[in-house]
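Data deposition worksheet. Section B asks for the primary sequence of the deposited chain exactly as it was used as input, without tags or linkers unless they were present during the calculation. Section C holds the resulting structure in token form. Section D is free text for depositor observations; keep each observation to a single sentence. Incomplete worksheets are returned to the depositor.
Section A, Depositor: J.P.
Section B:
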Amino acid sequence: MAEYIKKILAVNPKLKKLAGVLLILVGLTALVTPFTPGSWLIFVGLEFLGIRFLVWDKLKERFWKK
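Section C:
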């Protein structure tokens, strides 16, 4: 199922951007409503839009050294 979703998002970049924006909006809504644990969706949405965090690359190097 995950491969199917990745394939669809790779073929249709507009759908990927739409999903990213929707996740950011849901995350922002979660910040001001009782759904506070859902605010992590902001970061998922930013990742969908292609905004990577510099911290992620550093963490990946530190914990997944081969």
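Section D:
The two ends are 29 Å apart (CA to CA).
The mean pLDDT is 78.
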